[in-house]
Amino acid sequence: MVILAVVLLAVVMIGFTITRSTGTPLYASLGVAVSEAIIEQRAEEMGLNEPIVVQFWTYVTHLLQGDLGVSRISRIPVAEDIALKLPATAEMVFFTLAVSFIWAIPLGVRAGLRPDGKLAKLGEGMAQFGVSVPAFWLGLLFIFLLYFLPPRLPEPLGPLPSLFPPPLGRVGSGVTPPEMVTGLYTVDALIAGDFRLAWHTLWHLILPAVTLSLTSGPPLFRVTRSAVSEAVSSPFVEAAYSYGLGRRTVLIRDVLRNASPPVLNLAAMTFGYLIGGGVLVEVVFSWPGIGSYAVWGMDNSDYDVVLGVVLIAAIIYVILYFIVDLIQFAMDPRLRD
Amino acid sequence: MSSGPANGALLTLSGVEVTINTLSGPVHPLQGVDLEVYPGETVGLVGESGSGKSMTLRSILRLMPPGGAITGGSVKWQDRSVLDLDTDELQAYRGADVAMIYQNPVSALDPLLSVERQIVDAFKANRETSDGVAEEFARDALRDLEFGNPDVILNRYPHQLSGGMAQRVNIALALACGPSLILADEPTTGLDMTTQIRVLDLLEQQVHARNAALLFISHDLRAVSRVARNIGIMYAGQVVEFGPRERILTDPSHPYARALLECMDLRTGERPRSIPGLVPRMTEEYELCAFRDRCPSRMAVCDEERLPVHELGRRGRLLCHLGPDHG
């Protein structure tokens, strides 16, 4: 908990300094065609003429009361916007990781067990592809191939219906989102008992999630592969076989347990990275997440917006690592001593 | 072959060959190993590192390293061919018939599991039983292995054990499988002198108490002669001489066995000598005697003909052109 406080204080200080030193929100909020007097008046209103230390103090005291400030452009409190946009990003990131857990982890396990097998080669091929292709480009390619192209195919083949909905955010136009409970549309739709809507929101999630998973999953594949291959060649695994334990038992009891720490760590890191790092994919799929929100804030030198997002991302990181530490603490007796 | 189920051997290896495909080409760690182990007896194998001792044990359990395979010969358990067992039969054979004790006791234990869990799992893998019976066994086994407070040890994890304690836990694991043959791969190498003797004595005592046979390998002739009634000398992936302890320790026939004895001879008080020449490279497959480059008794025939096998009585064998009766 002490570490958490220290990390967050450092993030606030660094973030505050950087945002204040890279521009002023005055012109963005007023336009350029205003007189010096109005600019000066506005700066006074916004507290920009105060010494930087005083500004920082004001920010931190507000922060401690749970106040992340107000957007200087939209005049909407940052906390409100984040509460609205964070679930959108979180949902996308959850599904991205879910997709990665479907392909990267099993293929990594398989590749660790049988490095020369077909599945190992498939995994390595996907990993090579994923790291060499930019996520936004892959997203555009998917949209082109699965949404744009099929209805425009010439006679003998087409026209075919689009396989995926147009990339218009979390729900199609004219569809009402489910009532907000968790902010995750698929979950909220299920809570509301509306399976059609749940299916609809899931359908909108698949392409962004697959795009992000293909580009952020390769490290998970590789780390899983090397962790499993290291575990499987440990003396205690051979010993377990020599006692007459079955293949499946040894795999679950010895190999996977011992291979899991680096994979868990990387999964947490990937999650944290995707919270802010999926911006380009958010843009491509018109996903109203906090990545796009942060970029919008940066464009306008909207200090509180940028700092708010940075702070939330940092909090998520710290919490994730805390959870991973707890899991590893529970699993590994060596850490408990 | 004079061996087989007819004369009641538990385990019969004949002409076992192992090939491992590595990135730098094939390696042949075993090049025709012949060996028998009879019920309840203790057999020792001695040889330098790289002579194929550990690989011999692994071929008995069919636990090959990546890229490795048994490429020739036969491994028989009583009258069944181990090399023909399917996955389920192999799993049933491992542990229940043959169990192994490893060289590095701490790394042979899963670091994430308690001592109790590991013994209980090994016990239950080899019989239909309840947790209660398995836990009872674990407690008794640890007590037999002279742990003063078994309940404390059962709840410990491998990193909380000393080398000697971990090796006794490994012995308990092998015993938990209830095997008729225990393989011991340099079980005392990493331990200090007094612990070595204690662990060896306990191992011997527990194996005998359970009427099991023991196949013990070491580069240390003294450790082997302490426990083994019959001793085999390994060189370049073959057992070049085999016989009763008394004969091997006093009057071996193979020139390599003699050289080994000389450099391990502590009675003279001299500095141990080494055998001149280089240890053979196992990337090569030896058609002729692999020791002839280092052999003081090399003859013309050694460079021309394959090694003859001399059977010396019921429990003796020699692979050398000199034969058993030379000077």
Integer average pLDDT of chain A:
85
Percent of residues in β-strands of chain A:
under 5%
Strand arrangement in the largest pleated sheet of chain B: 6-7-8-3-9-10-12-11
In helices, the fraction of residues of chain A equals over 70%
The helix/strand series of chain A, from N terminus to C terminus, equals HHHHHHHHHHHHHHHH
Q: How many strands in all of chain B?
A: 12
Which protein chains make the most extensive interface, counting residues with beta carbons within 8 Å of the other chain's beta carbons? A-B, 25 and 34 residues
CATH class of the largest domain in chain A: Mainly Alpha
CATH superfamily of the largest domain in chain A: MetI-like
In a few lines, what is going on in this structure?
With 337 residues, chain A is an all-alpha fold. In chain A, 73% of the residues lie in helices and 0% in strands. Chain A folds into two domains: 1-65, no CATH class; 84-286, MetI-like fold.
Structure, described:
- The complex is a heterodimer of chains A (337) and B (327).
- Chain A is mostly helical and 337 residues long.
- Chain A folds into 2 domains: 1-65, no CATH class; 84-286, Orthogonal Bundle (MetI-like fold), CATH 1.10.3720.
- Chain A is 73% helix and 0% strand.
- Chain A has 16 helices and no strands.
- Chain A has helices spanning 2-20, 26-30, 36-46, 52-64, 78-113, 118-132, 135-148, 185-191, 195-216, 218-232, 235-242, 247-277, 279-284, 290-299, 303-331, 333-336.
- In chain A, helix 6 (118-132) packs across helix 9 (195-216).
- In chain B, the strands form 2 sheets. Chain B has an 8-stranded mixed beta sheet, with helices on both faces. In chain B, strands 2-1-4-5 form a 4-stranded antiparallel beta sheet, with helices on one face.
- The longest helix of chain B is centred in the middle third of the chain and has 17 residues, at 193-209.
- In chain B, 31% of the residues lie in helices and 23% in strands.
- Chain B has 327 residues and is α/β, with parallel strands linked by helices.
- Chain A binds chain B through residues 115, 233-236, 238-247, 249, 253-254, 257-258, 331-334, 337, and chain B through 61, 63, 66, 87, 91-96, 99-100, 102, 104, 107-114, 121-122, 125-126, 157, 159-160, 170, 173-174, 176-177.
